[in-house]
Specification:
Layout: H1 3-10, E1 19-21, H2 28-32, H3 38-55, E2 60-62, E3 73-76, E4 97-100, H4 108-119, H5 123-146, E5 152-156, H6 161-164, H7 167-190, E6 196-202, H8 207-225, H9 227-232, E7 235-239, H10 245-254, E8 258-261, H11 274-291, E9 297-300, H12 302-306, H13 308-314, E10 318-321, H14 323-351
Parallel strand pairs: 3-10, 4-5, 5-6, 6-7, 7-8, 8-9, 9-10
Antiparallel strand pairs: 1-2
Helix pairs in contact: 4-5, 5-7, 7-8, 8-10, 10-11, 11-13
Length: about 350
């Protein structure tokens, strides 16, 4: 039986687990989504940051208190903010930030190696090229873990239509990616760092498919870092908007979190894609909530940012947002939260009249 299935069966409170953000976990992104203005958000964040310095390390897990509505999170997506170095020990972002592993394949040297590997027909030569790809991926993972976003990252394994058409190549590259990532984590831990890396299995179409991907990830983690890390590593599913709804619910039963990817199948997502994405998100979320009411479900991609108001309304956990769209998304989230607060205040006041 898989770890995810054991959690559901052995832990009666598992349905209450979600993203847990203690006071020390908050960043400007989260604070702005709870504040009426940019100024008040900044003031709250600075106060929280000072408190963090005195509190030290904090819990970073998936959790929600019963009956508590979680904040709507605006988190980082993409490589636009990856160069930011870590600041002081104990100052953590409210991650996870979303890292798409195929982004690393776009680096010039890696792109050339990847192209050669995909077109190579000779097994020995292909293996040698894959080894060179591994070392490049290992270096990229090391850079990530040394950055501020490396404190808590959710890394989606590489997946492209070209790789999907060649399952053997897809499995080999994902294996190399996991080996490189966990080797970087091992080195980071050896140096005393407190990095956390969670994984996303890309675009499973069924519970069985996700279960196989999860078992594969856990196996590599255990071989590389040992049982303790494999047991602590959170493994989620990156879902396409057209995922079969019943399958999404079944995947949610054994996934630690879900991300509905608005960028899946979109060559250049634009604002007019938001309406269709919001409709798909509502259907997927409804199926997931029927199967697992407290599941952590986030959205990613440009359509998610444009559809933020709809995603907030239906009860999505939050979005991963690119640097180009993040400021506007933060302001929208702040306005929506402020309006909801005013409505709740008015309703409470009316009840006492």
């Amino acid at each position: 039986m898989m770890k995810g299935e054991r959690q559901q069966n052995d832990d009666p409170n598992q349905e209450e687990r979600l993203f847990k953000y203690s006071t020390g976990d908050r960043t400007i992104g989260m604070e702005m989504s709870q504040s009426a203005s940019v100024a008040s958000a900044a003031a709250e964040f600075l106060a929280e940051r000072d408190q963090r310095k005195s509190n030290g390390n904090m819990s970073r897990t998936y959790f929600r208190r019963p009956g508590e509505r979680q904040p709507f999170l605006v988190l980082r997506d993409g490589r636009g903010e990856r160069s930011t170095p870590r600041e002081e020990p104990g100052i953590y972002p409210a991650g996870p930030c979303l890292i798409r592993a195929e982004e690393w394949l776009l680096e010039p040297e890696l792109a050339a190696l990847y192209s050669s590997w995909m077109s190579c027909a000779e097994d020995g030569q292909a293996e040698r090229i894959l080894q060179r790809i591994y070392h490049r991926l290992r270096a990229a993972a090391g850079v990530l873990l040394e950055s501020a976003d490396g404190v808590w990252a959710a890394v989606a394994l590489p997946y492209t239509p070209e790789l999907a058409a060649s399952p053997a190549r897809l499995a080999a590259l994902q294996d190399a990616q996991l080996d490189a990532l966990f080797a970087a984590v091992a080195e980071s831990q050896r140096l005393g760092s407190d990095s956390r890396v969670d994984l996303l299995a890309p675009y499973p179409a069924s519970r069985a498919e996700f279960a196989a991907q999860r078992e594969f990830i856990e196996g590599v983690a255990e071989q590389t870092l040992g049982h303790a890390y494999a047991a602590a590593c959170r493994i989620g599913a990156l879902l396409a908007p057209d995922v079969e709804r019943a399958a999404a619910g079944e995947i949610a039963r054994i996934a630690d979190f879900l991300v509905l990817d608005g960028a899946a199948g979109e060559a250049a997502p634009e604002e007019n894609a938001a309406e269709g994405f919001a409709t798909a998100a509502a259907e997927v979320l409804a199926a997931v909530r029927r199967a697992r009411p407290a599941a952590a479900v986030l959205a990613a991609g440009a359509p998610a940012a444009y559809a933020l108001a709809d995603l907030y309304e239906i009860g999505m956990s939050g979005i991963f947002c690119s640097a180009a769209l993040r400021t506007e998304a933060l302001l929208r989230a702040a306005c929506l939260t402020w309006i909801a607060r005013q409505d709740n205040t008015d309703a409470a006041a009316g009840g006492w009249q």
